Amino acid sequence: MKKIINKAEDFVDEMIDGILRAHPDHLRCVEGDKRCLVTAQKRTNKVGIVTGGGSGHLPLFLGYIGEGMLDGCAVGGVFQSPSASQILSVTKSIGCEAGVLYLYGNYSGDVMNFDMASEMAEMQGMQTVTVTGNDDVASSSSDRKETRRGVAGIFFLYKAAGAAAALGMNLNDVTRIAIKAKESTRTIGVALSPCIVPELGRPSFTLGDNEMEIGMGIHGEPGIRRSSLKCADDIVQEMLDPVIADLPFEKNDEVAVLVNGLGATSKEELYIIYRKVSMILSGKGIKVYHTYVGEFATSMEMAGASVSLCRVDDELRRCLAYPVNSPFFSQKQM
Q1: Annotation says 219 is catalytic
Q2: Domains and CATH numbers, the chain
Q3: 54 CB contacts (<8 Å, ≥6 apart)?
Q4: According to the model, what pLDDT value does residue 121 have?
């Protein structure tokens, strides 16, 4: 294992300490627990948004805490859920009187601990509502969407719900918009190499030198098909076909596009991917409202990428256009 670290067991805490030192104007930790993070610019007169999940996915999850997006985040070990007590600690610290939306990916450990935190928060007089991202079309069939994994497409949920909260909408409307973004978003990924969890010191799965896997999850969960490596255009075609068919996306729809690197894929490759995505969408009469290309939800040093489409209407356009100022993502008013 080649990584620039000190002790493997200190990887997460030292990483978060570095982020806190680099972004003191954006982030602070709660009660000395570096794995419980909230915005440094506290606003209590709005709906709060709390997320969380395992480390190893930067900029997910803590990188999106800031103006126009999230208010707090609880972080676990690499690919491990944060505890219910950590989630509750974050919830109490943001202190949003208008209620709190829990917004996170659909993974069993996260669901269990956020549900426990919600129960504890309600017992202490705090109102919480939950929306889970489940955009990964490769993880189950369209008639079982509720069981799908949440992957990079959760960015659109963060962006939409964060804007709605910043605009002063109430908890019902912020939740409604988060659900609208969720129901409008589909994602699929392709992996070209495994990643190494520092405390394990070895790859958690294997891919041959000339292999790829369409639909592999961000923790190495099985995908749709493993095959020999293809050229970029063929990979994108194989990825986009099930995404477009799933919603389905149709002629005259307008979409936001997210091309996301998984940790070890160059931006040059990501733009080659977007080139083909744009060509396919144009050929189907689907309009592109806005494009995001870069690393938005990674998996340590996994080589590969994902593509997300979010169908937009006037309300989602307004939310996606809203400005953001967070440690890992900023955007001016569009």
Answers
A1: yes
A2: 8-183 (3.40.50.10440), 185-326 (3.30.1180.20)
A3: 75, 76, 77, 78, 79, 80, 81, 82, 219
A4: 97
